[in-house]
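Lab notebook page, bench 4
Experiment: in silico fold of construct C2
Operator: M.H.
Input chain length: 284 residues
Purpose: comparison with the prior construct
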Amino acid sequence: MNTDPALQRRIEARPAGVDTERDPGELAVFELDGVDLYYGSFRAVHVEHLEIYRNQITAFIGPSGCGKTTVLRALNRMNDLVPGARATGRLLFDGEALVGPDVDPIEIRRRVGMVFQKPNPFPKTIYDNVAYGPRVNGRKKGLDDLVEQALRKAALWDEVKDKLKQSGLSLSGGQQQRLCIARAIAVEPEVILMDEPCSALDPISTMRIEELMDELKDDYTVVIVTHNMQQAARASDRTAFFTAQLDEHTGQRMGTLVEVGDTAALFTKPADDRTEAYITGRFG
C-alpha cells in the first residue's frame, strides 16, 4: 500500500526489533476491558480491550458513527451529561475505577481535560479564559504566573502577551483553539482529550496544533479523535481503528474497536483486513 512520506520517515527512524511503545512495567493511564457504552437501551460501541499509555499521543480513527467520540468522552465522564448514557465493563484510570458510586466525575474532568472540535473560547478576556478553571477550583494566588505558564505551554504567549485584556473571541481560529488548550492546561490535568481539534482550521493552523501536541506529550497523555488519517500517521504514537457493524443481538448498527497498536505498524501492516480496507480507501 502507499505510505505517507512523513510516516515512512518515522518508520525508518525506529530501531529495528525494538518495542518503542512503552516501558513494559508501566501502568496504562487508561485500561478498558469488555466495555459497552450505551445511550438508553442502544449499545453505541463495544471495546474488547484498549490501553492508553502515558506521555504518548493515541489517535482514534474510523468512519463516522463508529463510536470514536463516544469512547473519548467516556474517558473523562462527559457522557454522563447525556440522559440515559451509561457504561458497563471494566474502565480504569491510573489503575482505579473510572466509573462507580465513589468516583467524583468532576474530579475526573479536572484530571482529564477536553478540547472540542470547534474552538469555544468563553466571551471573556484572554486572561480570564485561562484563569477561569483555576478560579472555579478555588485558586486565588499566583494566577498571573499560572496564566503565563499555560499560554506558553500552548505556544500562544508570544502572540497574546500584550493583549491579555482583549476578548478571546478576537483571536484567529487557530489561536482560539490554542487558547482552549491553554484553558485545559491551566487546571493542571494529567490527560488532554482532543475531539477533532483541527477540523475547523486551515492547514497552517493544523500544522501548528500537531506540533503543539508533540510538545505537550512530554508533560501530558494526549488522545485525539481525527477523521484525517494523514494527521493520525504524522502526529500519533499509537492508533486505534474503530468501525461500525450490526449488533448480532439487536440488529442495530454498533461501533466496535477493531485493533490498536503502534501507528507505523498499523498503517503499514495492519492485523485486520477491515483496517487495511479503511486506510487504503476501499471503504469508509
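Observations: The longest strand covers residues 42-52. The chain has one domain: 5-119+190-279.
Next step: discuss at group meeting.
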